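Extended Data, record Cytochrome P450 oxidoreductase
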Amino acid sequence: MFNPVFGIRTPTTDTNHMLRLYELMEHWSKVMEIGATPPVDFYPFLKWVPERFLGHWVTRATEVKKKMDSLYHDVVETVIKRRQSMGPRDSVIDRILDRQEKLALTKHQLYFLGGIAMEGGSDTTASGILAFMKAMTCFPDIQRKAQAEIDAIIGENRSPTWSDYARLPYVSQVVKESMRWRPIGGLGVPHALSEDVWFEGMFLPRGSIVFFNVWGLHQDKRYYPDPDRFDPDRFSGRTLLAPEYAISSEYESRDHYNYGVGRRLCPGIHLGERNLFIGMAKLLWAFSFEKAVDANGQTIEPDFNYETGYSEGFIVCTNDFPAKITPRSGERVETIMREFDQAKVEIFSGFE
């Protein structure tokens, strides 16, 4: 996300700004977890209770704010200095700076506009892909079916791209089922009612906070029969992009609810959908995912139980699990290296 938002490349996972981001996100997710902080919005008197009785929530939130202020300041100022010496790039922040005279954003607004965009597409996408990798490890028949579709269309001389989306419907179904089967945000993002609402005999006054139970919706047998089974075929014939279903008035046709609902729908839904498809399609094209074997030759079964095999928090991610991941062929390895060399010349060089 550093690239599209700031035009800054992250060449390795231990790049300084990447390490700072994931340290920040780890602490931020814990602060944002339901129940991790007192409900001061509902009961304002709680802000007068010494924080030591409430898990030191103020101190924890303040520490996260300091990390945000520092990282967001540094990356935006890097963009500003780069523009002075090299001119603008095609990034979100560059485009905003091009219109700064009209927008008149404060430095604080500019820093957090970029920071929030970067946050929203970082751990969410990574968590989604890890859930997919665990599913492919646990359900090899589905993996092979998706790979057969890719092989028939793509071959070994190139990897899948976004332009292949329409020709890989089963892969699209795998992406959707990965998002439904183990949703990234179990309780979604809280919403506040803008008007009084009656719902199933209950009166909900304007301003009420409503939690959007994504996990519960994805387990609803009326819409997803046998919901705990990983079954991409439940999306057969429903392979439009998630934004198409999200804006439809026919709520029963919705594919999944990871991107939220209504006016607070995730603004990065289009980018997220493309990132997930490209990432998962390339992984299926390139690698085989198998269950690991212990020292005694016994197969190690990954834990895909939602309660024991996944982390708790605002963002839900699989716990570490053993797996055997191998390239599917030597030809694919050669293609990966060739495309990497090509990307270094055509793409990465623009960020050096």
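Summary. The mean pLDDT is 89.
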